[in-house]
Amino acid sequence: MKLEEFRAIVRCIERGQVMTYAQVAAAAGYPTGARQVVWSLKACPPDVPWHRVVGKGLEVRLSGLPGLEQITRLELEGWRVRGRKLVRLEEESQSQLKAPRTTRRKNAAKTW
Asked: Which pTM was predicted?
């Protein structure tokens, strides 16, 4: 049964990791079953980490209280949410450490 196959894959997602609905479907052998993954996670047992499954582009697709709960759980696992998109905390801190790019015209004269 697809339902249990999807849930078995979701149970294997480690803390701090996420998969998209399409990735879960493909891993179960149903490459076009992303919507079925959504339905299989609507009422799942507590041992299924449903919050680790997100939409394409690493976006939180749930709205209302389930969406807020998903965001809260993911933040506890090291994710930051910008708008509806997930960003790893490590990536965010790395991007802040990089030197800002200067804009310079290609053939601009050098001034010392």
From this structure: 0.78
Burial of residue 24 (number of CB atoms within 10 Å: 0-12, 13-18, 19+): buried
The β-bridge partners of 84 are none
Task: Please choose, from the candidates 78, 73, 26, the residue with its C-alpha nearest in 3D space to the C-alpha of residue 50.
Answer: 73
Ordered structural domains, the chain, with CATH: 2-89 (1.10.10.10)
Which residue spans within the chain are E strands per DSSP? 19-20, 53-54, 79-82, 85-88
Greater confidence, 110 or 12? 12
Average pLDDT score over residue span 55-77: 95
d(CA 36, CA 49): 17
d(CA 68, CA 27): 27
Q: Are 13 and 53 in contact (CB under 8 A)?
A: yes
Cα 95 from chain centroid? 18
